Amino acid sequence: SMTWLNYAFRVMHLPLGLFGVAVGTVALPTISQHVAEKKFDAARATLFDSL
Questions:
Q1: 32 touches 46 (CB < 8 A)
Q2: Cβ distance 46 to 30 under 8 Å?
Q3: From residue 6, how far is each of 17, 20, 21, 51 by CA, in Å?
Q4: Residues whose CB falls within 8 Å of the CB of residue 50, separated by 6 or more in sequence, listed in order
Q5: H or E segment at 13?
Q6: 8 to each of 35, 45, 51, how far by Cα in Å?
Q7: Which of 10, 28, 31, 35 is least surrounded, with the fewest CB atoms within 10 Å of its CB?
Q8: Is a pLDDT exceeding 90 seen at residue 45?
């Protein structure tokens, strides 16, 4: 019973791990650059586009 719950939990979080981490890895440097340059509207737009 616990083994199946653990397996289901891992399968459920697999897409989040694959796509969420990939999008975050790509978007974070761009957002950080915009914030460092005080281009907050561009940072906000990049954040919303990545979601």
A1: no
A2: yes
A3: 16, 21, 21, 28
A4: 23, 24, 26, 27
A5: helix 2-15
A6: 39, 35, 25
A7: 10
A8: yes
Residue 27: alpha-carbon gap to chain centroid: 8
> Would the CA dihedral through 26, 31, 32, 34 be positive or negative?
positive
Q: Which two tokens stand for residue 10?
A: 């891992």
Q: How far apart are alpha carbons 22 and 7 in whole angstroms?
A: 23
pLDDT in tens, 1-26: 789 999 999 999 999 889 989 999 99
Listed residue (36, 29, 38) closest to 47, CA to CA? 29
The amino acid that residue 23 corresponds to is V
Separation between Cα atoms, residue 51 and residue 29, nearest integer Å = 15
Confidence bin at 39 (pLDDT 50/70/90): very high
